[in-house]
């Protein structure tokens, strides 16, 4: 069982930066790959980024490549999403999620696969 709590959301001007964090409970955090997803009003939830359980592999949606960076600290049971050059289109509720996906799963698996645990989300608002 893993419990996830996101933080770090807020209001930022276009072009600015935010760092989201996700704190996980449970002793087995290091066994889980982690992902960030987002959902804007009226839209489906979409994949943003993922990181393997070791931290050695990362995956990004095309829309955020080069602007967002996902990282994790297994010793602290945390995963982070550093977001830079934010755009109004990035405005959404951001969720972190955990999955037991293999270290060597494909990028498609990470972006479309089943995640077992979800946080409650944190709002990111980008003003133009």
How would you describe the overall organization of this protein?
The protein has 128 residues and is mainly beta. It has one helix and eleven strands. The chain has one helix spanning 107-112, and strands at 4-7, 10-13, 18-24, 33-39, 46-51, 58-60, 68-73, 78-83, 92-99, 117-118, 122-127. The strands form two sheets. Strands 2, 4, 5, 6, 9, 10 and 11 form a seven-stranded mixed beta sheet that branches. Strands 1-3-8-7 form a four-stranded antiparallel beta sheet, with no helix packed on it. The protein is globular, with a radius of gyration of 14 Å. The model has no long low-confidence stretch (mean pLDDT 95).
* Structural class designation: mainly beta
Q: What is the typical, i.e. mean, pLDDT?
A: 95
Number of helices: 1
Quaternary assembly: single chain
In short:
With 128 residues, the chain is mainly beta. The protein is built from one helix and eleven strands, in the order E-E-E-E-E-E-E-E-E-H-E-E. Strands 2, 4, 5, 6, 9, 10 and 11 form a seven-stranded mixed beta sheet that branches. Strands 1-3-8-7 form a four-stranded antiparallel beta sheet, with no helix packed on it.
Q: Which terms summarize this structure?
A:
11 strands; seven-stranded mixed beta sheet; 5% helix; four-stranded antiparallel beta sheet; mainly beta
């Amino acid at each position: 069982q893993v419990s996830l709590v996101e933080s770090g959301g807020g209001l930022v001007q276009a072009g600015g930066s935010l760092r989201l964090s996700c704190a996980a409970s449970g002793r087995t955090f290091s066994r889980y790959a982690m992902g960030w997803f987002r959902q804007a009003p009226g839209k489906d939830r979409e994949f943003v980024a993922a990181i393997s359980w070791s931290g050695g592999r990362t995956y990004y949606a095309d829309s955020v490549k080069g602007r967002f960076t996902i990282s994790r600290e297994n010793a602290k049971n945390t995963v982070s999403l550093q977001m830079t050059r934010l755009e109004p289109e990035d405005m959404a509720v951001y969720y972190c999620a955990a999955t037991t996906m293999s270290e060597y799963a494909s990028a498609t698996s990470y972006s479309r696969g089943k995640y077992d645990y979800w946080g409650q989300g944190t709002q990111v608002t980008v003003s133009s």
